[in-house]
TrEMBL record:
GO terms for molecular function: transferase activity. Keywords: Membrane, Transferase, Transmembrane, Transmembrane helix. The chain crosses the membrane at residues 239-261, 273-295. It holds the Pfam family Glycos_transf_2. GO terms for cellular component: plasma membrane. The keyword Transmembrane helix applies. It comes from Alteribacter lacisalsi. This is Glycosyl transferase family 2. Signal peptide: none annotated. Residues 10-172 form the Glycosyltransferase 2-like domain. It comes from the Bacteria.
Amino acid sequence: MKQQKIELLSIVIPAYNEETVLERFHEEVTGILRSLSIRYELIFVNDGSSDGTLEKLKQLKAADASVSFIDLSRNFGKESAMKAGLDHVAGDAAIVMDSDLEHPPSLIPDMVAAYREGYDVIHARSSVRVGQSRARHLLSGSFYSMMNRLAGDEVQFADGDKDFVLLSRKALDSVLQLSEYNRFSKGLFKWIGYPSKTVYFEQGTREEGASKWKLTSLITYSIDAITSFSLVPLRFSSYLGLLVSFFAFIYMLVIIGQTVFLGNQVAGFPTLVTLVLFMSGVILISLGIIGEYVARIFLEVKGRPIYFVNEYVPSEHEA
Ligand code: UDP
């Protein structure tokens, strides 16, 4: 494996209503980066925060020339904010991480070391989940195992995989070529391929504020994840159709047998109602699945930009 050098390391940090934690984040990250003695830039993306996040970023910028910030025109969501940051990377390697200290800056040296060894994509995965309920743990565990079954070999996920990743310039350029509107970055970082390595950390509890994910957003996130990487649900309706037809055929033979050989009067009404309701359910589920894909095709063909920038203040490295 060919060793790689870092001239400039860019850190991309999406921030949505994180005013309380930004200063501490900046302090911890710069402490770690200075100890590594590499040139760096911190690209903060203000994703339409309604608190004082932007003011905090301006203060950080005034005090530290390595800071750059992108102020988006409104809240576009974390995926879009990450893309905005990655589009502005000047370095030859980029790290994407959360601004709420859920992703420990102390892992950066390990990631940089793996990059220097020659890896292009370095994923961070948490090994222990402190402060997460058993139910949520079970739910995310079963989500990932279902996802892996659906997605096939090109992308395999593990419980504990994070949007905390280091990308070499080569890997980053590949990610930037993926211009899809519905982004599931965790999957995209794997889908691009290249030599990759996973580094582990112990997940702590959140430092400040609560997670901004509601149950509904988690469901949308899961549907996005599945529809971005799998066509299996679309085949589901065909398989279900075949299965139902098979049982209907057997049932028909049974009824014919009963009428012809046993002379039984067939009770039609309850059977009919049950079958009609069952089939309606099957049809609606299939339509719903197709609808999910059609909706995404609709969003993609509109080809709208993923975000708009209200203000961009570059770091000293780009200015
Ligand atoms: N975030 C963002 N836009 C959003 C929601 C979140 O940029 O609409 C940022 C947030 O500031 C944080 C990261 O994405 O840096 C992760 O957010 P959060 O902690 O809410 O998600 P979780 O860690 O629970 O997945």
